Write a sequence for this structure.
């Protein structure tokens, strides 16, 4: 398997623009997680899905952030409008209760480095 | 509230043993995980403890004491490639709450 795939790998945009980050989880995984990593705040869970259904979005910072998972192989995280403080690395991770050496192991994608000017 | 505390940085020399501690205070607890992250890379899973005691995986071991809300990651026979950040993470239902990370620098 190719692992978790994220695109784009780097995104530079201007304040006020809409940003869409994409994630393809590992085939067969039923959990998908979106994280944000910054030096100041560390690795924060934004939202997670189980079987394409959002379970916990308490980490989504504000209404400017939204996430969808229209099917088992694709998820998006959208920021509209973007602000400089959104600059961070955004990771997508997936897991399965059935696969992996440890059922709770999360497999992370390479991340999207977002810079908002 | 929920908090996980780790030392911010640890240094050691090749071949040495280093222990990275993690204390946690969370509203729910299912187990403690450890992840490794190299600069510019993604976190990768190292270990998971659901029960008290020591789990060994090659050069790495992880320990958990639920009564003390404490765990540690033990790295033996350190190699230069072990230089990275190490995160403890509490599993709460289906999600992970990550600590702030410990940066390990291994010197020759």
């Amino acid at each position: 398997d190719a692992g978790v795939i994220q695109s784009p790998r780097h995104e530079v945009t201007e304040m006020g623009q809409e940003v869409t980050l994409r994630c393809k989880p590992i085939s067969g995984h039923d959990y998908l997680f979106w994280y944000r990593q910054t030096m100041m705040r560390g690795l924060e869970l934004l939202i997670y899905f189980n079987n394409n259904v959002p379970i916990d979005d308490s980490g989504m910072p504000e209404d400017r952030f939204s996430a969808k998972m229209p099917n088992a192989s694709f998820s998006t995280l959208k920021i509209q409008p973007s602000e400089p403080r959104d600059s961070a690395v955004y990771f997508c991770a997936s897991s399965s209760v059935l696969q992996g050496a440890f059922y709770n192991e999360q497999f992370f994608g390479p991340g999207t480095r977002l810079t908002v000017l | 509230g929920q908090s996980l505390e780790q030392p911010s940085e640890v240094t050691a020399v090749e071949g040495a043993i280093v222990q990275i501690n993690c204390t946690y205070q969370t509203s729910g607890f299912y187990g403690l995980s450890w992840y490794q992250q190299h600069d510019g890379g993604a976190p990768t899973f190292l270990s998971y403890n659901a029960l008290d005691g020591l789990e060994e995986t090659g050069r790495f071991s992880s320990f958990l004491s639920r009564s003390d809300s404490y765990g540690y990651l033990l790295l033996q026979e350190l190699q230069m490639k072990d230089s990275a950040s190490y995160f403890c993470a509490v599993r709460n239902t289906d999600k992970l709450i990550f600590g702030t990370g410990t940066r390990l620098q291994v010197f020759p």
About this structure: The two ends of chain A are 36 Å apart (CA to CA). The mean pLDDT of chain A is 93. Chain A has no helices and eleven strands. The longest strand of chain A covers residues 42-50.
